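Retro notes, item 3 of 5
We never archived the inputs for the MV4 complex last cycle. Fixing that now. Sequence and ligand:
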Amino acid sequence: MIWGVLLFKKLLIANRGEIALRIIRACKELGIKTVAVYSEADKDSLHARFADESICIGPNSPSESYLDVARIIAAVEITGAEAIHPGYGFLAENADFSEICERSKIVFIGPNADQIEAMGDKATARETMQQIGVPTVPGSDGLVADLKDAKSIASEIGYPVMIKASAGGGGKGMRVVQNEEELSKSFDTTQAEAKSTFGNSDVYIEKYISEIRHVEIQIFGDSHGKVLHLGERDCSTQRRHQKLIEESPAPGMTSEMRRQMGETAIMAGQGIDYVGAGTVEFLVDPEGNYYFIEMNTRIQVEHPVTEVVTGLDLVKEQIRVAFGEALSFPSGEPSIQGHAIEFRINAEDPAQNFMPSPGCVETFQPPGGPGIRLDTHLYTGYQVPPYYDSLLAKLIVSGSNREEAIVRGRHALDSFVIEGVKTSIPFLSDITRDDDFMTGGVDTGFVEKFMQRWVKR
Ligand code: MV4
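Structure as it came back at the time:
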């Protein structure tokens, strides 16, 4: 047992849904008591039931509950919790929140404000990575001030280019332009949109790379200066920047590429003295060249894929390193066993352009068997509220190789019964039967092409 962790007794979870349950599990294993916070819409939720204590912090709207810093700090004070786990989304990448915790002597399970800020501003992140020697996409050195500046950079690197908002990320606030005429039309608009969406008009430019795969490396740092990596996840199966399927290892990845990209991701983490779980996102082109695009300073939705192929518990490790423990993970290249695939099951109707489908879960019959993990907060009779993201469950399947994982995934999806709300299950099941998906030749354009075949089916 880890003595340092045993010295602390109570952790508050500033989140809801499946990730709140995932954090409760980690705490049970570490012998830490948990406090759940919940909104009125979540009064009958499992996270409020399974935590040792729970407190209602406000009405349905996220801004008056899970995003309200004052209410969450008040819940910490009332319950005497010593730490906060923010999960993903909500306050997880809010530098001010991390700093408020630090100043209030509450352990924030995540990086400090400086580390969050270093990566939150995408142009700064890009410049920092360039200085460290991490490969970035050809483009501007830092911000682009005006159209004249933009034109000169674009003609140097060649069209098409992308204009990206520095305060954006995850696909928000970006535009592709094919030539100088389009650049002239779009530049000021992109700046103005960035200003109105993010309150910051800063933009930068990158060469547009097509036919890419989205490959991200999981890293972990501790407060003793150590940073290691846990291999990659391929997240190319996305629709409108919403990931649908993630897997590890990435199809087409060689151990030499993993070693190189892993080294690069560690350099990125060390360059900002990173502590905690982080993800370094790369674009990978068909020749295998890779470029840093963003870093996420939180535990990600798809972390179980890495847990399954490494056999490690990332949430327990987050808690340990936040309390100053040294990383307990083995050093050196990670040992990857078999193949894991995560299917995100959302309360959405794929036949209606993925329209959200809240309501009552009348039947909940989950799949099981070898190589099946299900992270979910559902139960029969659960009311899916319309106020939050539509993730209902994460089905993580594994096998000794990709083929076995796909077959298990297909059968698990087909035997998974959720009635009362529409879900993405049938759509995901059809993807597991697709030739392009099965051969692993999937890039970020896959879902759109698949949709065209799917609607005509
Ligand atoms: C790009 C790109 C092509 N070239 N940057 C989208 C999300 C954000 N993390 C970065 N994104 C992209 N940046 C350059 N210079 C294409 C995308 C992109 C994408 C990236 C990852 C996964 C899916 C994507 C879907 C569309 C566009």
